């Protein structure tokens, strides 16, 4: 895991980055590895890949963060990327794998109400995706919206959103 994280830092080759991110994502399926990756500063390195200009690299980084977000301590570190994830969702092509990867991460990050406030500005985007997206996109958006709607503090924001 340490070598994969160092590889991500050392290379600019998008194909190598994607493969390293896929391997880290698969490794994160095991809870012990989630802690190891966090302790190796892997979350910030993977999170830094969200600003990469290659959509596939962003997508793989989102997938890795999604798997890593199953851990409360990891969520505390991943939450700093929520605004950027929302921007990636908004700017990604409609129904793209990148958009879906971002929505899956937000689904995990919105299970508790701790970070809902960071998603408020994206509610109009979510509602747009709900009306314009394919069934796969709609299902992912609905998961996020259901999580947000479970928080009474979000009611006003959800009902007043301009679509």
TrEMBL record:
Domain of life: Eukaryota
Membrane topology annotation: Single-pass membrane protein
Record-linked InterPro entries: ARM-like, ARM-rpt_dom, ARM-type_fold, Armcx_regulator
Transmembrane keyword on record: yes
Residues spanning the signal sequence: none
SUPFAM superfamilies attached to this UniProt entry: ARM repeat
Protein name: ARM10 protein
Lineage: Eukaryota, Metazoa, Chordata, Craniata, Vertebrata
